[in-house]
Amino acid sequence: MIYKKNVLYTIVGSIVFVIIWGALSSRFAENRTDEQVVGISAITVTDTASQIVSETNEHKATVYRSLSCGCCLGYIAELKKQGFTVDVKSLREQDMDPIKKQYGIPEDKQSCHTTVIGEYVIEGHVPMEAIEKLLTEKPNIDGIGLPGMPIGTPGMPGVKQTSYEVYQKNRDNFSPFMTL
Length: 180
Fold this sequence. Notes:
Blueprint lengths: L1 H26 L6 H24 L2 E7 L4 H11 L3 E7 L4 H7 L10 E5 L2 E5 L3 H10 L5 E4 L18 E6 L2 E7 L1
Parallel strand pairs: 1-2, 4-5
Antiparallel strand pairs: 1-3, 3-4, 5-6, 6-7
Helix pairs in contact: 1-2
């Protein structure tokens, strides 16, 4: 729900902007040729459409999960609930290793699934608050993660028993991203 609302606001705002811009452009058209007015309007519509596509791509998630893992389905359900379009890649256990290697996730930082949203990799059962912070702040990092399968995280049963230490990954360097 977090992101559906943001995309809706972006689309509505963009449409209103194009309408206002069109009205203003026609007001000043007497001093411009038809080609200039059409050109300015086309640039505005193109820029607005690009922004909408960019916002929408940010809310597409690809989840690589092992066929033998059921908790990943709970995580996928939570992503969908939050407004993400999710492409699920169910793989054999041994086929998960190349995915972890591709995204530079060492064994001690791994979990049961790897998610890619835009240019970011999200390893494991990362709470939605951390993903929201990542996508809002857009830091210059490769991604974030939460090792293991902590109780009470999205997709994992039970009640939270301890704080979650979400790490950030920048190339081969790992450091704290946030504590929840």
